[in-house]
């Protein structure tokens, strides 16, 4: 089922949350993965070009009132990241206060926190992309997230929404009611980690550090044909623990081993009683 948009009604909304929510209020039976090209054509994007861009991942060029425009996407990034970049540029186009000419770098595509107006726009466009590609309301209504969080569920949802594993996991940890964190590594060296908003413990996953020696990830064979690994480890392995009542607590560490030394690890704090 194609998305059909009432642009007059959509024009009443100004934030990433409100605009994406209205898109899906108008299209409650939309199928996944979301057809971004169709949305783009509906809102006034006349052309999407995939080009050998240097130094940027995506760009928007629109008229002053943003009634029409074109989007350029780097052809050097993988298809799932192209989708996120396209959704990001659509965010710039549809959020009224954003500029009509935007050039977005790799760093822009990773921004989440607002430190100034420019960063705030990039962070909001990233939020828009996440909400458009993985709409929380429809995910909950269709019960696509398993009752008990697990990394297999994340891998399955990645295919459902046609997004990168990283984008899917980053959304998943806040969509699920469990207290979760996710860590990305290359050859057991931490690339970065992300904690869910509700987790009361501080995640210790410093960039370029080796994974904790007592973690499951430090011990598994990254070259094995077995891709999924699960084991309980101490809470203090991955989190800063100050309360005495938490010293002996354990968490569930689940790792999905990818290709060429990459791995994604989901951390689940299982019991917060008496903490």
TrEMBL record:
What organism is recorded for this protein? Answer: Alteromonas portus
- Which PANTHER family has this protein been placed in? ANTITOXIN HIGA1, BLL0069 PROTEIN
List, for all copies, the residue spans of the domain called IrrE N-terminal-like. Answer: 47-169
What does the record give as the organism's lineage?
Bacteria, Pseudomonadati, Pseudomonadota, Gammaproteobacteria, Alteromonadales
The protein's matches in Gene3D superfamilies, at most eight in alphabetical order, are given as:
1.10.10.2910
What is the name listed in the Swiss-Prot or TrEMBL entry for this protein?
ImmA/IrrE family metallo-endopeptidase
